[in-house]
Amino acid sequence: MTSVTIINNSLPEYLISKIKQYSKMPPFRHSYMSWGSDVIKDSSPVLVKDLDDNFNLEIIKHLSNLFPILKEMQTHCMWYGWPKGSYIPWHNDNNSVAITIYLNEYWDDDWGGYFAYK
Question: Which among 44, 47, 43 has a CA at the least distance from the CA of 30?
Answer without folding.
Answer: 47
